[in-house]
Amino acid sequence: xxxxxxxxxxxxxxxxxxEKGSINEGLLVFLGIGKDDNKEDINYLVDKIINxxxxxxEDEKMNLSALNLKKEILVVSQFTLYGDCSQGRxxxxxxxxxPEKAEKLYNLFVNExxxxxxNIETGEFKAMMDVELVNDGPVTLWLDTDEK
Length: 148
Known about the structure:
22% of the residues lie in helices and 38% in strands. It has three helices and eight strands. It has helices at 39-51, 66-69, 99-114, and strands at residues 2-15, 18-23, 26-32, 55-56, 62-64, 72-77, 120-122, 130-144.
């Protein structure tokens, strides 16, 4: 499971000009699900994201988490995080989960995030989405459960 996590001042996702989810200050999480991912990966990644200390404290050090500050989180499914561009010019998505498996794990991920008591917003699984954001910092981090 892969997540591209961005600290944002605001973010929103729309599908066919209809707003699906929006947040103010918090985290935008682009989530990719691999063919070998499971519930253990979800638990690891949810815990890592909500407790990731990437917000500044009073000394301007990244020392506080979304959970500490009760920040909002916008989760957007993005299978292209599993795009392999190492050969040729067209990405291969061999390592990405099937749409059926990915949707199931994506929904489990969102449910686990909801258990954090933070405000969790989402896009729409398997939809063409427009994502708007104002990156804060900029701060952008890559998380991969294969590296845990």
